[in-house]
UniProtKB/TrEMBL annotation:
Portion of the full-length sequence here: 322 to 608 of 608
Name of this chain's protein: EAL domain-containing protein
Residue stretches in coiled coil: none
Residue span, EAL domain: 24-277
Native organism taxonomy: Bacteria, Bacillati, Actinomycetota, Actinomycetes, Motilibacterales
Organism: Motilibacter deserti
Length: 287
């Protein structure tokens, strides 16, 4: 119980801060239980190709079906998982579940890439690459169906480890995306050296782009930069038609946001039509 006493929280004398520490410990205990007890869920948010309007993939976003507090968003528990190291188990569950879902879609003949978010701590886990490889092999999913998202901030917090891990993912054949781009401090010269495929423009810039000239300029230069570096540009947090049209005019590749669809459980997603022989067989079987 008192194993957490090495944490500086115990030395804090401010009673409010101590309450806070107690709350976090309680949350951590509950989360540990939740991971082992099947309380985690994945929701999927679609992303669309701006050139042809086709659904290109989905991003897996974790939720916690808390028995008392209801469905919690990652903002309520990811930090606690990160700080405690529980992110290792949580992240393994997310990967396993996302790959299993990718396999189900593959069986239905639905051609979708699945994006999974990785935290800084997961990136530094030497076992991560094997986890990914094993999960894909077990389900018979090619690595090309998997996108691994790393925030710009995580990338910069430990660039040496990030480089090693991203290089390994690329060697597997997975796609690597830089998430929340524009909010960290990655210099362009630096970014150039990382083996990344996708730039996800942070939604704070997308949100302001139709009213604020500065935000619009940032979005425009991210798209331009991605193009010049041979990367796919992705706008996150697209909420309006005006934003979508502005992004199309700027030549952005992909878009994701409430305008297209909120994150939902897999069975509530409106899927693109199945393609090819497998798809036809699946449709026949279903009819
Ligand atoms: P993110 O990867 O940048 O994911 C996008 C977030 O923006 C999601 O929040 C999504 O629900 C939200 N969003 C999408 N479209 C819109 C929009 O049009 N407007 C607005 N206002 N918001 C939009 P969510 O699901 O709460 O996730 C928050 C963050 O938690 C994620 O940001 C990601 O960094 C992290 N996260 C989520 N799932 C996982 C996971 O499985 N593992 C790890 N390590 N982190 C995760
Ligand atoms: Mg993401
Ligand atoms: Mg993001
Ligand atoms: Mg974001």
């Amino acid at each position: 119980r008192a194993k957490a006493s090495g944490r500086s929280g115990w030395e804090v004398h401010d009673p409010a801060a101590r309450d806070d520490t107690a709350d976090r410990l309680r949350l951590l205990e509950q989360l540990r239980h939740a991971v082992n007890d099947g309380q985690l869920r994945l929701h999927y948010q679609p992303r669309f190709d701006l050139a042809d309007g086709r659904m290109a993939g989905v991003e897996a976003l974790v939720r916690w079906a808390h028995p008392v507090r209801g469905l919690l968003a990652p903002g309520e528990f990811i930090n606690v998982a990160e700080e405690s190291g529980l992110i290792r188990e949580l992240g393994a569950w997310v990967l396993e579940e996302a790959v299993a879902q990718a396999a189900r879609w593959q069986d239905q003949g639905v051609d979708l890439q699945v994006s999974v978010n990785l935290s800084a701590r997961q990136l530094a886990d030497p076992g991560l690459r094997d986890w990914v490889t094993t999960a894909l092999a077990r389900r018979g999913v090619p690595a090309s169906r998997l996108v691994l998202e790393i925030t710009e901030t995580a990338l910069m917090s430990d660039p040496v480890t990030a480089m090693t891990t991203l290089t390994a993912f690329k060697a597997l054949g997975a796609t690597v995306a830089v998430d929340d781009f524009g909010t960290g401090y990655a210099s362009l010269a630096y970014l150039r050296r990382f083996p990344v495929d996708e730039l996800k423009i942070d939604r704070s810039f997308v949100a302001g782009m139709t009213e604020d000239a500065g935000d619009r300029a940032i979005v425009a230069s991210c798209i331009h930069l991605a193009g010049a570096m041979g990367l796919v540009s992705v706008a996150e947090g697209v909420e309006t038609e005006a934003q979508r049209d502005a992004l199309i005019a700027l030549g952005c590749d992909l878009a994701q946001g409430y305008h297209y669809g909120r994150p939902v459980p897999a069975d509530e997603l409106v899927l693109p039509r199945a393609r090819g022989l497998l798809g036809n067989v699946a449709q026949l079987a279903a009819s």
